[in-house]
Amino acid sequence: MTEMIGRKYSITGIVQGVGFRPFVYAQAVHNHLTGWVRNTSSGVEIEINGAAQAVHAFSDALRNNPPPLSRIDRISEFPCQPDGYTQFNIIPSQPCPGEFIPISPDVTLCADCAAELVNPADRRYRYPFINCTNCGPRFTIIKDTPYDRPKTTMAGFTMCPDCQSEYENPLNRRFHAQPTACPVCGPHIWFEAAGEVLTHKEDALQTARAWLQDGKILAIKGLGGYHLACDASNPEAVAELRSRKKRSDKPFALMAYDIEHILPHCQVSSAEEQLLTSRQHPIVILNRLADSSIVKAVAPRQNTLGFMLPYTPQHLLLLEPAPGFPEVLVMTSGNLSEEPVAYMDEDAMQRLSPIADGFLLHDRPIHMRVDDSVARVFTTGPQILRRARGYAPDPIQLPAPLPSILAAGAELKNTFCLSRDQYAFLSHHIGDLENYETLLSFETGIKHYENLFHVTPQTIAVDLHPNYLATRYGIQRASEGNIPLIQVQHHHAHLAACLADNAWNSDEPVIGLIYDGTGYGTDGTIWGGEILLGGYADYQRVYHLATAPLAGGDISVRKPARMALAHLWQSGLEWDLDLAPVQALCPQERSLLRAQLENHINTPLTSSMGRLFDAAAALAGVRQEVNYEGQAAIEFEALADPDETGAYPFSIEEDKISTAPLWPAMLADIHANTPPAILSARFHNGIAALSRQLCLAIREETGCNTVALSGGVWQNQLLLDKTVTLLAESGFNTLLHKQVPANDGGLALGQLLIAANH
């Protein structure tokens, strides 16, 4: 007689809402095992009885071939006595007070559902909300855990008998797929304009397509919020959208039906195709082709375009190729410039009616607004520029378990971060905390994450800057709750974020090239060009850019011309009338600027690398005034001649990096009518060479051979490529961001790790 054995399993990770229980059921039945599987508030529990060989086969499948959307972080396996089960069952979920489980991000439409969507014989043919266990909404509809339908925004849609039968069948692809629905019982779409409903369902879709083809601007309710859409090849439509949205230059995101519809417009490498078609379907930054028909105003003065593929069935239906229909749509966030994306219907109608000619709407509520993610491919792999849909709230595994900490993040590109055990839950992109609406989104998001993951912060970490809204929130909450508060220097947090992103688990210090726009320094100046040596616990500021006056504060951030003239003034160089930044300012403004500089009136000092890029871009004649953060540097990078090998010089004076040699060399080139493309290349080459020189000096003194690159300036792919190449040639081990942005969107993760080490 075959010997029967028993096993119990406790599994943590992303194992709910991803088809894990049906997978377990199928494996158990296949191996003739008995027992049960259930969801709990902390993961999945299994008990099985069967022949030893069959149990081992089951265990092997569990560990090595789990469902594609799952992520197993830990399996605990225990022997137990066989309990006489006669069959294998999926039993009801068990809530465990205080326990938690990671939540799956929203997942793009799977191949099976996409095939059903276009199959006339399928009962969900052309249904805009088709989904199954392997795809569809997750984070945007979840109100609480365990992840069951009554705790989602699908609670109001009662399943029809056919859907209920699929939902209850462990061998069906839709077993316990909480958002499952069909045209009989699920959400539906409609089209309205000027407050009047015009069409429903398929007719609504065709109305929307006709309006887009006719050059109209539409507001489209999607997965985590509203988009504003128009024909990307229609100059009038794009110009009108820019005007109404009050977004003069910042690039618009694009959506195309498939890769073949992107190829006429951009170069797409195999790695970029893989990222575009990944289950996250982020916006991917691609190199634009010169003969693309997409109007230049989509991404003014840039040589890249941001493309994404349809990630919901509604998007796929909307973009179906047809004669005369636009090949590419602008698909930008549904908001006015600088506001959070609209996601509540009434609010969206109010805020977007002045922008959109019509609305394509649906009645599935969105519980948590989530923007589209933005990514690109570097030589070392994908890099996240904005972490949101598809990635959040997927947790980052930490080198070691941490206490419960809330890190409030930065002012710009805000994300917050919560820790529990070995997980860091970095939030989706919140945005720039510069208005009440975004602050409210920040506060609401924190409450939701704390509730979902059952986190009660024992410590709060904030930026040093006293006037950041995120800092003020943290200070107030710490005071009211009598919670310890830790203030973290901005660039130390960048260094720690890069280390955590690479699962760094060593006390050995690393060199941090932290190149950023703005961060409050411990000496009261504005830092941003920092060469640090340290780790999670502490750091030294070994070198930094020599400070320059930021005359008028934020006005010099908005007007790089002022930054350029401040640098020339500080270096004792004349403001020749033929220089672009001189011509950009009227005589009165130049006179006032000089008086400010000479008399030190409202001239805070900054070592910012971002402001140095602004000054160089202005001096080269590229951009004298910006309409969004980093615009001057982005346009300066786009111009660079890839074949130029010359480099502008810098000098190192004790711990300061002097720009005194840079400006005369650049002015000499300008007076010799050197093209801006050469000026840009020589500037980038100079910064890359300087970076290597600084790392070599530190290595010679300390023996440190690992370099972490963090801060928003490293989004400059040209600078990153040149610097990484030079560091590799010199034998350095270089750490780059992978899971979280190098910009301030990753800062909260660093704050968290530093706070844990205090």
Task: Give an account of the 3D structure.
The protein has about 750 residues and is of the alpha/beta class. The strands form five sheets. The chain has an eleven-stranded mixed beta sheet with strand order 7-6-14-8-9-13-10-12-11-15-16, sandwiched between helices. It has four domains: about 5-90, 2-Layer Sandwich (Alpha-Beta Plaits); about 100-385, DHBP synthase (Alpha-Beta Complex), CATH 3.90.870; about 395-495 and about 745-755, Nucleotidyltransferase, domain 5, CATH 3.30.420.360; about 515-535 and about 545-735, Nucleotidyltransferase, domain 5, CATH 3.30.420.40. Helix 14 packs across helix 17 (about 610-620), helix 17 (about 610-620) packs across helix 18 (about 630-640) and helix 20 packs across helix 21 (about 715-730). Strand 8 and strand 9 (about 225-230) form a beta hairpin. The protein is globular.
